[in-house]
């Protein structure tokens, strides 16, 4: 897909981190961007900077996602690109003993379900609704109607202690990539997924410098945290390269996560 001013994109989680970096890269190519996020202050500011539109969207709610696509398409046109970066995480053991009194507790089901609803179901919700819109478009000269990039995590394959919900949600994103790509292949819509390693995103922004340094040192090469723009570059490669389809690609500096 050739990126230019005739192409529109929707980026979920687009107000910061991986999503914001991808929105900037797309905008540099002339692409009109719509940012889906819950952070109005950051989202509006970035949309204004990029000449795009911000849509306050909760990916766990059909009505919110529908309203977001309606607003985005009215402002920048029917998207040919969807990049799913919205996501959350938590760290809770499946079952554990209290160090204080020895009492036993298990992973709260509502906390487990919330991560699944945001990371997995929310991603699929946006894919399905975006794909339906892309089907209304004529194919481009290269045969593409659209291209999608999803965000999983190395935790999909190397889940650490306390990451049962997060790993399950991201493993689900990996697992559905190929079937969705197959579902949409005859319509000229490509689907790929990135599995980022330890990236310097807002999730780590509040961590002490010694913790950040220790995390970076775990990476074989280069021994540092990933930079959001590196994710953005891979996302654009997936979008622009017509033979890139149905793939799950780690972007992690060669790390394989230890249990903790």
UniProtKB/TrEMBL annotation:
Q: Which domain of life is it from?
A: Bacteria
Family per record: Belongs to the short-chain dehydrogenases/reductases (SDR) family.
Stated name of the protein:
NAD(P)-dependent dehydrogenase, short-chain alcohol dehydrogenase family
Pfam families hit by this protein: adh_short (PF00106)
Q: Does the keyword rRNA-binding apply?
A: no
Q: Which organism is it from?
A: Parasphingorhabdus marina DSM 22363
Q: Which GO terms describe its molecular function?
A: oxidoreductase activity
The protein's UniProt keywords, in alphabetical order, are:
Oxidoreductase
Instruction: Look up the signal peptide feature and give its range.
Output: none
